[in-house]
Amino acid sequence: MSSGVVIILTAVAVIVVVAVVLGMFVVRRGGHGLRRRFGPEYERTVAEHNGDVKAAEKDLDERVRRYGNLKVVPPTAEARGRYSAEWARIQEEFVDSPTRAVADAEALLGRLAQERGFPDGSSEEQLAALSVHHPRHLDSYRRIRCVAEGVDGRRASTEELRETLVQAHEFFVVLAGERRGQKPGRPAARSGRHASQGGMRHHDIARGSQS
């Protein structure tokens, strides 16, 4: 074999190795980016695909492609006041009718999401779109949907309903445009009229569980 042929074969081998290494780097980088972007939704999606990371990441990539550039309309101050007033009514309703209050809260969240530009609340598309824009708050929305619709076929206790509503309020506050990225379980302090209308306090809901 001539030296020229050896040089050519060596060059080809080097190119192949470099291509493989770069491909592996891109895949790892893409997976890390999806994990960082989706947070707990990444792990949930992997579990839904029975541990198939490649299939899960394909699913998440598709969501980003479809909904990443979705035009989300910020609510006006008037709209925020209206939403807060309705949530306050639901909070008061919980005292006498916890089940109905949770159902009303779920309906309000679905309507609010739709008014902001997300797909209709009756479809799984809404969850897919919300997972791209609000992945760290989506579990609370899924939970209140399941409870309101009685997916597991059992009647939730008053304490479960209370916890569901408290957690859903975190998503409501973010979705209503009052703040972004607030960690669950740490409602932001608010003052004045809006605090009395929209603030979800654990002891307020707890009173409903004692009545």
UniProtKB/TrEMBL annotation:
Residues 201-211 have a biased composition (Basic and acidic residues). Keywords: Membrane, Transmembrane, Transmembrane helix. The keyword Membrane applies. The chain crosses the membrane at residues 6-27. Residues 179-211 are annotated as: Disordered. This is Secreted protein. It comes from Streptomyces mauvecolor.
